[in-house]
Please model this.
Amino acid sequence: MKDTKSLAIQIAFLLIPVAISLAVAAILVTAVGRDPLEVVDALWKGAFKDSRKVGGVVNFWIPLTLVSIGLVVTFRAGLWNIGVEGQMMMGALFASWGAQTLLWDAGMSPLLNLALIALSALGGMFWAFIVGALKIRLGVNEIFGGVALNALVNVISIYMISGPWQPRIGGSAQGTEPFPVPALLPEFSKTFPVNIFMILLVFAAFVIVMIMLNGTRWGLNLKAVGKNMRSALLLGVATERTSMSAFLVCGALAGIAGSYRVLFTFDNLRPLASGGIGFLGLLVVLLLSIRLLWVPLITFAFAAILTGSTRLQIAPSLKLDSSLAGVLQGMLVLFVILFQGVREVFFPQLTVDAEDIEMNENRPNE
Amino acid sequence: MNEELLNTLGSIIGTATPLVIASLGETITERAGVVNLSLDGSLTLAAVLGFAAAWTAQEAGVLDVPMQIALGIVVAMLVGALIATLIGFSSIKLRRDQVAVGFVLTLLAADLARFLGADFTRIPGPQITRWTLPVLSDLPILGPIFFQQNVLVYFSYILMLVIWFWLFRTKGGLALRAIGERPEAAYARGAKVQWLRYWYTFLGGALVGLAGVAYSLNVKPGWSSPPAMQGDGWIALAIVIFGGWHPFRVVLGAWLFAALRAVSSNIQTNGLFIFGQEINFPFVLLNTLPWLLMILTLLIVSGGFTERLLQYMPRAVQHRMRAFLRSDPPKALGTRFEME
Model:
């Protein structure tokens, strides 16, 4: 079936959208009077100049990969978990509560870290459970439930930061005091500031979810529910429980991702600590048409763009808004999706058998 | 009625206008069977580009103020229409999922707005000013609330009536409802389903663009980051559901949200007094109210919860209450239609 010619066209359909996104980004950069090549240079240096920068990329990669793995699970079940951003935030809130309450001494630090990570998973699951219950039992579309819960947890965190958890001196809405050292996740080294345990945790989550999705009854049930809720129900799948389990798994991973932000990246709780990583995870999974295998790679590329973009503002000759990273990522995903359509409609013989992002049973507003 | 209350009500109607226009635009798009999920991003991008166009014309000094405003409005409407048309195209022609494309465009448009708006942050520009209607504004009570506003507000009243009339009193409106409910039947009766879907998506998107520029030229003048209208796109989408895809109920929903927001922001600035006693309470938490209301209204109209509630009511009123509370989407909403 796959002769060289069709393979070439396959590759072309991957490269064309990437090329178009880069071209449009270059036009935008030129339009605001900057040199695109300089932007590429800044992005590259911002992400890979030295081991500290690479550490910065890894520090975005960890939470981004965690949420993306979780989102593969919810998408499999045909669920749009836009609430993932808020689930991260709730995880961060739970971890922050623990970090300020469980004052264990330094010798207990690894145990405390584990306890806080577990706590954050609970927090994420709690927020995911509400979205799930609203969707499954009460018929509130998960997109709107998720958006509302995202906003709610942001208000709650601002309240906590400016109220009960405000710093003793100079209280403001900027953030809590830094958490006690034993609660924080340790750095591998000053020159490569990442947390090794979390990296291992990401890979563990990746492998476990991969096995669960492809080798267990649960994975099959998820797929059945995602493809066609009604026939899954008729086939005897406990659809409500399956959908809820997808939400809970995603919530737990998102919560842990949130804990990394406050226990490592920032060392304290700040407003919007989740930093749009949950939404970025949605983009990653949409880009990959819900295929888990390539998640860690694409999240690395996205994390590199994100880290590199911080340099756009600092570089004296550029002074560009870092939102360019989001523009580039958004366009990549948009054009990849559109070109999947072009291929399917105009070159139907080349269509590979991928997870179709299509949820007939889960339309919005239903 | 005291003057202060009338002023407050009037300002609620004024600040609700972008929500009203955006929700009405989305209503006709969804009536045609297409979901434009990109509202939150579309509003933002339309706001900043509309403002940028009007401001640039002002700086160049080539146009007088009304024409600067008009230019801003046209640009914003084109932006909104373009994004919506892209969703229509990806769904109708390329068979992509509307929700996926809409969501990507939400994020993309918001980031694009921040990127392109960086140079326009916190600078004064042209603004749409009040235009008190003669005669009508002198009406007792109604005058100060509804007719001492700006031209966009008056436009939103007319829009509501026109959409209602079109939907329920014309042949074209019948076709519009048909392509969102049962496109096959509409097609069999000669409706150009795809073409009409494109048209109403375009039109709805243009209205969303207008709503966006209504922020940056009037309700929240200028541009800043994070944008002042962030989140309103999602609220508008929820209002459409709450409004049951009916223009009157949609407008009522938008006014309700604006009223709630006005009350909560008033309490946050002035404090809360009940019988002369100042009530102390972390007022930040009042910002949760619009979102709690969003969940609550969706709960009420989306079935499960309401059905359970109805079971406790006398049988005689059940049917009426159900018809009043529930709102069911156009049946073909979000689905594709193939000609074959």
Summary: Chain A touches chain B through 54 residues (CB under 8 Å). The two ends of chain A are 41 Å apart (CA to CA). Residues 263 and 315 of chain A are 29 Å apart (CA to CA). Confidence is low (pLDDT under 50) at residues 354-366 of chain A.
